[in-house]
Amino acid sequence: MFETQKLTFPRFIVAGLKGGSGKTLVSLGLARTYRDLQLKIKPFKKGPDYIDAKWLSLASDHSASNLDPFLFPSSQVLSLFWTYSSDFDLALIEGNRGLFDGKDVDGSYSTAELARLLSAPIVLVADCTKVTRTMAAIVLGCKMFEPDLNLAGIILNQTAGNRHRRILRQSIEKYTDIPVLGALPRLRKNPIPERHMGLISDQEYQDLDSIFNKLAQIVKEYVDTDKILKIARDAKVAEIPYDPVWPEKSSSDVVIGIVRDASLWFYYEENIKALEVHGAKIVELSILDQADWPEVHGLYLGGGFPETLAAQIKANVNKRRLVKHLADKGLPIYAECGGFMYLCQDLFYDGLTYPMTGVLPVQTKVHKKPQGHGYIRAEVILPNPFYPVGQKIVGHEFHYSDCPDIDSNLNFALRLQRGVGMCNGMDGLLYKNVLASYAHTHALGVPIWAKNFVSAARKFKQAMDSGLKECPEIVV
């Protein structure tokens, strides 16, 4: 039994009526506004989203964490969230999709469910294009749809002018008791254009502060930021069991390299933290530049957009050869989605073929529409360095590429109960001590992953220190 504690943490959730309602731009504007007030903001992103989380990190000047009761248990969601309560002045949580949208008809794992779990007030962002009085009915429906939901206010988005805003505000105030916290005009141009998984990568912009300052200026002019701050500070005290997220940090001399550059940068910060807790020293690497890599005993290749930098990857022959050499030596390598694509033979994109590292006997082809999108459930069916056989894994996939003409007899370590994967519901290709898949996982959902990764790196180091030319296959 864990000791129950009363905890306070000013907090609010920015939710939307649907995806694309404007909640991300509102969240970024609010984050920068409160940062400018010298508040220490801890941003969170609900759901499996790397891009919005990165933008929130940049707007607030603090790393964002993802909260998702599908990817890891609700008890861990609570523990992770409250871990930051003593270090930050305000928690800004951006929801995903529509407020009540989850994985099923019951709304499981929805933003509304997260709001109840965290006892967090909700600020709803609504796209008001071509609607006036009907918005009052929509707001009233949202308030009554699920019990115990603190719908604290609404921000009207995409309003056409003063008359439009006046009718919207008067209608909502007449028929509901939900306060209108702001009314944003229709922007002629989206400050951050969208692509793929929502907003495009921050790597493609040079002057990020000008974007955030513009969003903050809009929010300050059209939104009652003082009232939202009061709503956050009035959020009720939570009484929860104290359950530390992280075990006591262990010491080790192993080094795990993480490729973090403009091509591969999708990482949950908690995954990196988990590796450190289990004793790994983390070094950041690039597959784009010519800089030499230090000695590493493990390699983590996250997701990203390798196709957008395929020409640069192709040109960097030395790095491709190095990664192939390390894989052949038995270096433990864990690759997710974009990282998996990098380990393949070739990448087909926009009518051209780009050679990759050739670690895996597979090619990938990028399409205009998603080839796999959503949560995954998998069972481990082959021995590997990271997961024991029989381990059940939860995660998510969102890939625009597939594997044309893939051999269905390859060594797939994962059998999917839910999801698409690489081939007929199979995923997780194995080569020596390499495991590469389309699946993204979270360390709090599969805590054994980080411990085993560091252990595999240690075994590789021991093999090299003993004079072996190649590390034997590592299994757990």
Layout of SSEs?
Blueprint: E1 4-7, E2 11-16, H1 23-36, E3 41-46, H2 51-60, E4 65-67, H3 74-83, E5 90-98, H4 111-118, E6 122-127, H5 134-145, E7 151-159, H6 162-175, E8 180-185, E9 194-195, E10 198-199, H7 208-222, H8 225-233, E11 238-241, E12 255-259, E13 264-266, H9 269-277, E14 281-285, E15 298-301, E16 303-304, H10 310-315, H11 317-328, E17 333-336, H12 338-342, E18 346-349, E19 352-355, E20 363-366, E21 372-380, E22 392-399, E23 401-402, E24 412-418, E25 426-431, E26 434-437, H13 448-465
Parallel strand pairs: 2-5, 2-6, 3-4, 3-5, 6-7, 7-8, 12-14, 12-15, 15-17, 17-26, 18-20
Antiparallel strand pairs: 1-11, 9-10, 13-16, 18-19, 20-23, 21-22, 21-24, 24-25, 25-26
Structure description:
By secondary structure, this protein is of the alpha/beta class. It folds into two domains: 4-241, 3-Layer(aba) Sandwich (Rossmann fold), CATH 3.40.50; 255-465, Rossmann fold, CATH 3.40.50.880. Helices cover 30% and strands 27% of the residues. It contains 13 helices and 26 strands. The strands form six sheets. Strands 14-12-15-17-26-25-24-21-22 form a nine-stranded mixed β-sheet. The chain has a seven-stranded parallel β-sheet with strand order 4-3-5-2-6-7-8, with helices on both faces. It has a four-stranded mixed β-sheet with strand order 19-18-20-23. α1 (23-36) runs parallel beside α2 (51-60), α1 crosses α7 and α5 packs across α6 (162-175). The longest helix has 18 residues, at 448-465. The chain is globular, with a radius of gyration of 23 Å.
